[in-house]
Amino acid sequence: MRFDLQINPGTAIWPIARDAAIAAEAAGFKTFWTVDHLAGDVMQAPDMPECFTLLGALASATKTIEIGPLVVNVGNRHPGLLANSAATMQQISGGRFVLGLGAGSSPNSPFAAERLAIGVTPPATISERHAVLTNALDVMHEMWSPNRRVELAKFPMPNPRPQIIVGVNSVALARIAGARTNGVNIRASHERAGEILAGAQDAHKSSGINKPFTVSVWEHYDEALLRGDDPRLATWRSWGVDRVILLMFKSVDFAAIDRAAKYLR
């Protein structure tokens, strides 16, 4: 089971985010994740840096660790712009970019407030939100295809194509992730996590597509998980989990990151 580190960039502002990524790389974490939000209040922060601007800077500051957003709200960007941003990140990082995607929040979610504040109303139904996600996947597939149409010939081409992991909270969304992408992520404490992850794995097997697939959960940072003696790990393994993403939400604990090296190396 691999371990990744995620920070809240609204509370870990630059250069703390930069130093956290460098420390995570030195400790042996596999991927360094940020978030994609427009306003800080949804993450209990004073403000929020723009996702891809920050990721590009983090990629430039590191050498070996994977870099990615967990997760990009597909409703925040035109899918063509998203494809270009991801391709550019893959170039800057030298192939270390991992694209976390999410279908976005409902209009009644607290996370919708930041989009409503700039005049963007989220899709009202679950099926409409899922359609926005699948459309973004379609656009990225077309723009990154070696056989893309001539009008797209001069658009950035990622090399290699970045792995895509979808953050999910339902079986329906998990099945989209399993059938079309390289991985699935869910909050470890979700009451239906095992069932939802099983849906993703079933869809992956049924897709008939030979592609890498990772099953991950995220949880607030807990050193017991790194030590390997936390009983939650056995439960997660029974769900097929092969990746744990540990979130430092309120602040970055550099001493804890340094201690993690003895468990990760």
Structural overview:
It is built from 10 helices and 9 strands. The chain has helices spanning 16-27, 51-61, 79-93, 113-116, 126-143, 171-180, 193-207, 223-227, 232-238, 254-264; strands at residues 2-7, 31-34, 66-69, 72-73, 98-102, 163-167, 183-187, 214-220, 243-248. A 9-stranded parallel sheet has the order 3-2-1-9-8-7-6-5-4. Helix 1 packs parallel to helix 10 (254-264) and helix 2 (51-61) runs parallel beside helix 3. The model has no long low-confidence stretch (mean pLDDT 96).
Question: How would you describe this structure in keywords?
Answer:
265 residues, alpha/beta, 17% strand, TIM Barrel
| Spatial order of strands in the largest sheet | 3-2-1-9-8-7-6-5-4
Radius of gyration: 18 Å
Stretches with pLDDT under 50, minimum 5 residues: none
**End-to-end C-alpha gap:** 13 Å
Q: What is the number of helices?
A: 10
The proportion of strand residues reads 15-25%
Structural class: alpha/beta
CATH superfamily: Luciferase-like domain
State the CATH architecture.
Answer: Alpha-Beta Barrel
